[in-house]
């Protein structure tokens, strides 16, 4: 199957990129952070915890489903990379061509951005960006208009995809595949979650007034979402990716897949503790939780050489993130 995607899969984009001014490459090195896994999960967690009914009829269900969508996207990416196992472009290998005018502190940051190991197809940043921003545009359906949300999602996902080519850690085909996989994952995961817009006979975003819940208020497409099936699918796909990577002798991909298993399973367990209609969190509750879960995430990646520890830390972090909206009511009930 690796023959379907060749190691030499460029179509001349490197020539164009090499002709760009250094300052442009530096700017795109910063843009690529918009789809770093840590950034996307922090963004989605903040939306899940703090969003009000001004952005979605059921903001907790919308937010948890967005997290599940991106978890599925990373699971598909892990499976694709383990399956095709093709290298990144030569530009992703050391030494890095760091602009001489960058300050010392930024030089280290820049080098970390333009050097990348692991496999290159499909692009995880392009897949995750398309999934995250596409899911947010669809699920936070009371924010702006559908056209403005769609335009923002396309611009952000496209900018991230372009950045991966400009800093030469991916070929063009890698990011195009990532964008397509991300978009398909959004549709599939939302179908699993019960989004009526992706079910037969469901209303589209421009189909006119939605049905009401009997009280005259519009429940919107997020009212009955259940992210559990999408979380479980992500865990299953990650388990398959781990098996493929282990059989092929790719230990780094086994760890990445293990993190995917933990994220999917942790999300499903965390959602069992949530009713789905909780109020937004206060900063008093969320800030300490963000510090704890952030420390667990950092620890999970820092201890990537120990797969059981990494999986355990990731699972606990995700359970806390997803279950946190239920904490105030549980404490009050004690």
Explain this structure.
The chain is an all-alpha fold. The chain has one domain. The protein is 64% helix and 0% strand. It is built from 13 helices and no strands. Helix 4 (59-84) packs parallel to helix 9.
Layout: helices, strands, pairs:
Blueprint: H1 13-18, H2 22-31, H3 37-50, H4 59-84, H5 104-114, H6 124-139, H7 146-166, H8 172-193, H9 228-248, H10 251-272, H11 283-302, H12 307-323, H13 327-333
Structural key phrases:
334 residues, 0% strand, transmembrane helix, 64% helix, PAP2/HPO, transmembrane, Phosphatase PAP2 family protein
> What separation lies between the terminal Cα atoms?
56 Å
Helix content: 55-70%
Q: Which class best fits the helix and strand makeup?
A: mainly alpha
Radius of gyration: 20 Å
How many structural domains in the coordinates? 1
> What does the overall shape look like?
globular
Number of helical stretches of at least 4 residues: 13
Mean pLDDT: 90
Say how many strands there are.
Answer: 0
* Range of strand content: under 5%
Uncertain spans, ≥5 residues at pLDDT below 50? Answer: 206-216
For the largest beta-sheet, the strand count, sense and barrel status come to: none
Q: Topology as H/E string?
A: HHHHHHHHHHHHH
Give the gist of this structure.
With 334 residues, the protein is mainly alpha-helical. The chain has helices spanning 13-18, 22-31, 37-50, 59-84, 104-114, 124-139, 146-166, 172-193, 228-248, 251-272, 283-302, 307-323, 327-333.
């Amino acid at each position: 199957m690796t023959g379907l995607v060749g190691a030499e899969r460029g179509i001349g984009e490197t020539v164009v990129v090499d002709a760009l001014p250094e300052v442009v490459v530096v700017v795109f090195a910063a843009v690529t952070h918009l789809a770093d896994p840590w950034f996307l999960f922090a963004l989605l967690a903040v939306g899940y915890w703090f969003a009000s009914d001004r952005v979605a009829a059921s903001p907790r269900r919308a937010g948890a489903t967005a997290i599940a969508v991106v978890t599925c996207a990373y699971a598909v990416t892990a499976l694709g990379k383990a399956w095709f196992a093709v290298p990144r472009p030569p530009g992703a290998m050391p030494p890095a061509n760091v602009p001489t005018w960058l300050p010392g502190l930024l030089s280290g940051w820049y080098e970390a951005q333009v050097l990348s190991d692991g496999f290159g197809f499909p692009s995880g940043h392009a897949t995750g960006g398309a999934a995250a921003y596409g899911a947010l545009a669809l699920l936070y359906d009371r924010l702006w208009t559908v056209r403005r949300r769609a335009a923002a999602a396309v611009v952000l996902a496209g900018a991230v995809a372009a950045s991966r080519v400009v800093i030469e850690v991916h070929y063009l085909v890698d990011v195009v595949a990532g964008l397509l996989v991300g978009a398909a994952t959004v549709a599939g995961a939302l179908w699993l979650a019960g989004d009526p817009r992706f079910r037969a006979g469901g209303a589209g975003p421009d189909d006119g007034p939605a049905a009401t819940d009997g009280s005259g208020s519009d429940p919107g497409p997020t009212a009955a979402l259940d992210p559990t099936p999408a979380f479980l699918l992500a865990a299953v796909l990650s388990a398959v990716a781990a098996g493929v990577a282990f059989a092929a002798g790719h230990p780094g991909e086994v760890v990445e897949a293990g993190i995917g298993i933990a994220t999917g399973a942790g999300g499903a367990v965390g959602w069992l503790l949530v009713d789905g209609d909780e109020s937004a969190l206060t900063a008093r509750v969320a800030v300490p939780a963000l510090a704890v879960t952030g420390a667990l995430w950092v620890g999970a990646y820092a201890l990537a050489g120990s797969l059981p520890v990494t999986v355990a830390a990731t699972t606990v972090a995700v359970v806390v993130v997803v279950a946190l909206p239920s904490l105030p009511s549980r404490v009050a009930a004690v």
